[in-house]
Amino acid sequence: MGFTAVESLAEQIAAHLADRIIQGDLHSGERIQEARVVSELSVSRGSVREALLLLESRHLIDILPRRGAVVATLTESGVRSLYDVYVTLLSRLAQKVAERWSDESLPSLLAQVHVIQGLAEQRQPNAFIEAGFGLMKVAFTVADNPYFTQLLSDLQPAIHRTYALALRHSVGETSHATQFFTELMNAVIQRDCAAIPAVVERYGQHQCELVLTALAEPSALHV
Amino acid sequence: MGFTAVESLAEQIAAHLADRIIQGDLHSGERIQEARVVSELSVSRGSVREALLLLESRHLIDILPRRGAVVATLTESGVRSLYDVYVTLLSRLAQKVAERWSDESLPSLLAQVHVIQGLAEQRQPNAFIEAGFGLMKVAFTVADNPYFTQLLSDLQPAIHRTYALALRHSVGETSHATQFFTELMNAVIQRDCAAIPAVVERYGQHQCELVLTALAEPSALHV
User: Which of B105, B81, B87 is nearest to A140 (CA)?
Assistant: First the structure.
């Protein structure tokens, strides 16, 4: 079938375009012309189409009738909606981890929290965000639920995009975020499932407000 | 770009294949041969590929290296994982509806519950399941969160598949399900957000057990 080869090329194209959207290189509402991507990357039209479908499923672009693919526009209600569903899934994921961690899996969770703590004061927002998602990845293996893995992985690029925007505007934020990870990890270690939703919700709310503040700044007009 | 035309053909192919999987016509692990679908439906290979990607994102098939597309296998842990994420999202959706319904939107919610109640005793499992999803669709417009809409819409075919299996085995189940919808609706009308998670979880648990019982029956070997 050659399906895998095609899919993995599409994944590479999707990752390239996702990165340009996340870094703010491609702006809300900007058209992504299929033909241009084809010629810029010397790839087939079919793989570009598949890449665009992947980006659509990851909430980074919209595919509009007659206009084709455009970068998804960040709006206040869109960002609030995104964080609402993200917090909902993340809380439940953390609860699963709290229920299921073992002496075998705990060290990799702790190691990843350690990486986050090490990056807190370093003002490398991208590395910091990646480390946070790294913790989520370890959590996926502990929770062992492929649906949470897929749904949260699909939301991750859109969260990455908004959070990168927030960190470009709020440089000191990483130490606040680190407190959250530490607090969440403590609840997980104590298997305190009841405490988790409030911890995640409080932080999600905070992160969402940061994004909205960044969005409202004049320099963010072209985000 | 012709994108939409292609996508809507892919959607039609996906809907056709989804229906065959949901009705138990195509079984767990059965290969879906791209070339065969191309010739049976007289459509292009490209649209079949897009349809298969859609079915993968809806959890009905897996696309495996070297084997191509196969119908997703229903396993106990897979079903439990599916219901876990479904209950999590559905609870939150119901809470949003409880917060947001208005005098304008309430009648359409009540009308849909009425449709469900009317079907409870009629032993038309498919119509009953469709009516339940119809209520979810009304809930989407009230909750007004495109992420919940997309994630739950993507989970819906897999839930439909497992629930259809359960209803083929537990004919009297629809009246129990109707009690759940009535109870949930009462909590929504009273804007009793705190009561909702337990109601949804109890029912999700029950539905999940029905599916697992059906799966364990010898006649379900080829599901």
Answer: B81
Residues 6+ apart with CB under 8 A from B52: A3, B14, B32, B34, B61, B63, B69
> Are β-strands A61-64 and B61-64 bridged in parallel, bridged antiparallel, or unpaired?
unpaired
**Helical residues (DSSP H) of A75-195, grouped into ranges:** 76-100, 106-119, 125-143, 146-169, 173-189
Kindly state the tokens that stand for B45: 């290979």
Provide, as residue numbers in chain A, all residues whose Cβ is less than 8 Å from the Cβ of B145. 81, 84-85
B53 touches chain A (CB under 8 A): yes
Q: What is the ipTM of this complex?
A: 0.88
Number of domains in chain B: 2
Q: Do B166 and B209 have their domain in common? A: yes
Contacts of A26 (CB under 8 A, 6+ apart): A17, A20, A32, A71
Residue B148 contacts A, CB cutoff 8 Å: yes
- Indicate if B91 and B107 belong to the same structural domain: yes
CA distance B95 to chain A (A): 11
Q: Is residue A3 part of a domain?
A: no
Structural domain span for residue B37: 9-71
Chain A nearest C-alpha distance from B49 (Å): 8
Answer yes or no: do A69 and B145 touch at CB < 8 A: no
Cβ separation of B151 and A68 shorter than 8 Å?
Answer: no
Q: How far apart are the first and last CA of chain B?
A: 40
Are β-strands A68-71 and A61-64 bridged in parallel, bridged antiparallel, or unpaired? antiparallel
Distance CA(B65)–CA(B187), nearest Å, equals 47
Whether the Cβ atoms of residue B60 and residue B71 lie closer than 8 Å to each other: yes
Q: Is residue B173 one of the residues assigned to a domain? A: yes
Question: Does residue B2 form part of some domain?
Answer: no
**Is A103 contained in some domain?**
yes
pLDDT in tens, A76-108: 999 999 999 999 999 999 999 999 999 999 999
Average pLDDT of adjacent 10-residue blocks, chain A of 223 residues: 56 95 93 93 91 92 91 95 97 97 96 92 86 96 96 94 90 86 96 96 95 84 54
List C-alpha distances in Å: B215 to A210, B74, B161.
Answer: 47, 8, 12
**Residue among B85, B86, B150 with most chain A CBs within 10 A, to mutate:** B85
Spatial separation of the C-alpha atoms in residues B143 and B135, rounded to whole Å: 12
pLDDT digits (tens, 9 = 90+) for B9-54: 999 999 999 999 999 999 999 999 999 999 999 999 989 998 998 9
* Chain A residue numbers touching B155 (CB-CB < 8 A): 147
